[in-house]
Write a structure and sequence with these properties.
Two copies of one chain form a homodimer. Chain A is α/β, with parallel strands linked by helices. Chain A has 18 helices and 25 strands. The two termini of chain A are 46 Å apart.
Chain lengths: 603, 603
């Protein structure tokens, strides 16, 4: 098929394929179903078939999955999504599809090549009998008859707040009340899963308020919507941190979440017999035990500071802190500041320090990838998340699904050409950076920022101006490893001495299973293994190949323990699948997990 | 033209008319322009031509208006709105249109009959050079270059809060921070008009929180959206009062309004020379004077209680209060409660008292119109404000415009058939009510609830169950006028004695110009005259005919004094036109008001 086929023929090709596929599945003929795929095929399933987040690669993997799952999934009703016309271009036909299973309703995306399926995405949207109360199904809010037993909305809310976690146990406890935790909390509330979100800070949004004052989101507004409630169209493209903080605080209230501020979890243990966690928490100074069936760690993929241990740190006389604890530049005017690191936080902090009249040196220890913000928006995100995308009918939900439809194994092929365009557009900028001695890269295979993010969660800066300060020397650049701290300086391995009143360790974050070590035990942390990364065998993402991000939003080796997080896009989209997994368990539905990941790395 | 015309002919007819109309206007030929209208024509203008809210009735009124306004309005560019196909049915062709003027851009709606214009709606959308920063024009939120003079969003907000009203004077002061005041405040902020909203209560939303506990909005969610930020699709159809209160509180924060809680205006005077108000306020106990150029009273069309003066009220030994001060039924279990009145508040309060085990009597003093909530939703609002309307592509903005396109003079013709349908659907219900002795009506001309609302703002109940309590005798019904209060009873003119531990005066509200009397002077209140009502010469809406609601959202006889309010739909829609009027004055644009209303009634 080519782009020149008339649209009814394109649609007919899709219908033919769906029909053959549906027939093979109904007949339980997994070999016939697999034969409908290309040799180099991918089937990505988000919870619909596998009760897992899983990409099957190749026909054999697909038929093996079907052999195991078909009997209970019972998929049927495969059809083109109403109102979405399949389109063909470059020999690939793309279509949006709907289907259902015994347990629920789903939709997905299909790419056909020569009449066979190259990529298939299947996602679960809702569980039958547990649909969300939205749109036509929304609550009435008032009972249209006199009723002496009537309680008001406020009374109901107050009763719930006084009982949940005290006399009634929640089904889920989410530790961490940032955007990930409250987005998931909103979904669980919609699904009527009793949930408590705990956070050690005093107000929702304090996770952002407490950061350095110049911080703004690096992703644009279209990428950052929360579930259910979109930012209004007067929202800035890049949210200032205090504005997004206020939004999250309002969101928590509007979504009627059971959010416990000033609450810290001190330990947690799972009782296999009882199928229940015992989570010790200190709430406003009071100790109590929560006993949820499920525990979600939403404490941040960039939440556990990775602090280096340089000799001399204990005797350094100036200020020193991890980037996450940096208070902002206010007190450092005229001071000598050394920032160790050359990724996002390092650049943001260097820029703000320079703006406030500090004498700033950045220490680059390894190569960094930089993309200018405007360029990234135009070339990297423009088609899916931009004002133009909105104008052309691209909704956030659809953009999320398009993104999800691309298998991780081949995603870099889609990314490389975009970064080649970016390089071309900003060649002069990169030339200046390199002339200044900055070590710049485009990722191991030239696939750029987003692949770095998915593989290692580090190694890049989205430039909003600070790169120019390095290029033009306003921020001094030192390259090399740190040997030690003197009482008043950072000393590099080559002997360079960088006098310092302040040292900022912009040295990144540890894997999220470290949270499990802290809260539960090292044993459980090792049992679930490293979080994040694809096993791409590129820098800081060791193999073997996983096909999906480790441990995120899906079952782990520790029963009833889940990890949730990522950027706003991921938190928004994957919170749906995590919420459905939790709801299914609460509702007592069978949830046999296909292909539970093995553990290859501990951190 | 009929419904059977092909769509391109329908469109051609509209284009032909627009072209002739545009030519006549460009040539300044007001007679030719007027001749393009039918004999029984209407032109409703919202600020675009008249800097007023004005309906011109008949050709002579239209040409007179054009004679005066054309020279400075300079309208042009009349065309069918892109993507909106004109439609014909029943001999009437309807079309959405765009145009511009010297000052701004507008859109509107057209109804043609036999090639002539029967109804024209023109509205101003935005002022050139003062467009809102939304969508493609939204703020960036971050500056993409290092800048030592950078201030953060939070610093800017804090600076504004510390200066506005203290060292910097706002251009507008809005008194009253309910949904009307904050909706207007949001629009003014978008238009960069420095504004302070003051309210005597402690938190935005307290206007709702302080009402009786069973209160829910009687209008459905699709009717109730605020500007810019829509309710999410999990929002209940009828908002419970505390939930809408929380929403308004979040809204105030999200829209970055300068909202002064715990602030009461004690007096205001206009200095003609200085073109400035002196508004005395007490803020958190501190006295200060605000000096805005414009003063908006948004204190509620149902804000000033109308309390009767019955003999014996001073010696009645039980509780007595106006419905607006009713605390809810909690303390009246087993008590004898008499509610005087038979409209919305009376029914709501009777129902809640009965549900809480009180012995309740309603005193009906005059005929009331009742419509069941579900019926009103289905038949009265369904086409414009419902889940079905949303599904069929009817946006809130469009629904507002459709509603605005119907001239008040003939609106009852559109309403009467709807209420006939409602009567038919619920005949059994009305039979039961009447059998119980309840005096029911459908408005003077059978046009039902919404016309009663527009004409007199009273005289009806949207039934959510309490009418059945009256029909079946659970709530006792007494009819007649109140003669006096005894120490322990309400005594009617016919001698009936209704023993009472509680008397609730559900006796309605006074005209909004009473606020001006309280705050400014009786002289100014009389100068501007009665607010609300159309002059329809029906019960409680004395003539002469006004064509628009008196004094609402438009210039009054008192320079720089404005009234804003109405239900959520009106507050949302008309806040745009009021905001544009205020912005134009702030920007120093000429704003000659055509056809300023005369005053015929003082209250």
């Amino acid at each position: 098929m080519t782009a020149t086929l008339p649209s009814h023929e394109v649609a007919a090709g899709v219908t033919t394929w769906l029909s053959a596929f549906g027939d093979a599945l109904s007949a339980g003929d997994t070999a016939a179903a697999a034969a409908l795929f290309t040799e180099d095929c991918f089937w990505r399933d988000l919870v619909a078939f596998t009760w897992n987040i899983k990409t099957l690669e190749g026909r054999a993997a697909i038929s093996a999955m079907l052999d195991e799952t078909l009997p209970w999934v019972q998929p049927r009703g495969w059809k083109i999504t109403h109102g979405e016309e399949p389109a063909g271009a470059g020999g690939v036909v793309e279509a949006w599809i709907d289907f259902e299973t015994a347990a629920g309703r789903g939709h997905g995306h299909l790419r056909l090549r020569d009449g066979r399926c190259w990529t298939l995405l299947t996602t679960l949207d809702e569980l039958k009998g547990h649909e969300e109360r939205r749109g036509p199904n929304r609550p009435k809010g008032v009972e249209r008859r006199a009723n002496p037993a009537r309680t008001t909305w406020l009374e109901d809310r107050e009763q719930e707040a006084s009982e949940l976690g005290i006399t009634e146990q929640p089904y889920v406890v989410i530790i961490g009340g940032g955007q990930a935790g409250i987005g998931l909390g909103a979904r669980l509330r919609q699904l009527r899963v009793p949930t408590i979100i705990i956070d050690k800070r005093s107000r929702p949004g304090d996770q952002w308020r407490s950061r350095y004052k110049s911080l703004c989101l690096h992703d644009p507004v279209w990428y950052d919507h929360m579930p259910y409630l979109k930012f209004p169209d007067n929202w800035p493209v890049f949210s200032p941190k205090d504005k997004i903080a206020d939004w999250l605080e309002s969101y928590t209230k509007i979504m009627e979440l059971n959010y416990w501020p000033d609450t810290e979890a001190t330990s947690a243990a799972y009782d296999e017999e009882a199928g229940q966690w015992a989570v010790q928490v200190e709430r406003d100074g009071e100790l109590l035990v929560l006993r949820p069936a499920q525990l979600v760690l939403a404490t941040g993929m960039s939440g556990r500071p990775s602090l280096p241990a340089f000799p001399g740190m204990d005797t350094f006389r100036g200020d020193q802190h991890h980037s996450s604890a940096h208070p902002g530049p206010g007190r450092y005017r005229g001071k000598r500041c050394v920032v160790i690191g050359s990724n996002n936080s390092a650049f943001d902090i260097c820029g703000a320090l320079w703006e406030n009249g500090a004498d700033v040196t950045m220490v680059q220890r390894s190569s960094t990838h930089i993309v200018r913000s405007a360029t990234l928006m135009d070339i990297g995100l423009g088609a899916l998340y931009s004002e133009e995308a909105v104008a052309s009918g691209m909704t956030t939900d659809k953009a999320d699904m398009v993104f999800a439809s691309i298998p991780y194994r081949i995603m870099h092929h889609f990314q490389i050409p975009l970064y080649e365009q970016m390089r071309e557009r900003d060649q002069e900028f990169y030339d200046r950076l390199e002339a200044a001695g900055f070590e710049h890269d485009w990722g191991d295979d030239g696939s750029g920022l987003f692949m770095k993010y998915l593989r290692r969660g580090s190694g890049y800066y989205i430039d909003v101006g600070a790169a120019d300060l390095v290029a033009n020397g306003d921020v001094a650049l030192a390259r090399g490893q740190v040997d030690r701290l003197a009482e008043d300086a950072v000393v590099l391995e080559d002997g360079t001495k960088l006098p310092a009143d302040l040292v900022v360790y912009a040295t990144g974050y540890q894997s999220m299973n470290g949270w499990a070590a802290e809260l539960i035990s090292q044993e459980v942390a090792d049992k679930v293994g490293k979080c994040w990364g694809l096993g791409s065998d590129t820098t800081k993402d060791p193999g073997p190949w996983e096909g999906e991000q480790r441990n995120m939003w899906k079952p782990t080796q520790q029963q009833a323990l889940w990890f949730h997080g990522g950027n706003l896009h991921q938190s928004r989209h994957y919170s749906l699948y995590l919420a459905l997994q939790l709801k299914a368990r609460q509702a007592g539905l069978p949830t046999p997990v296909y292909g539970l990941q093995e553990v290859h790395h501990l951190r």
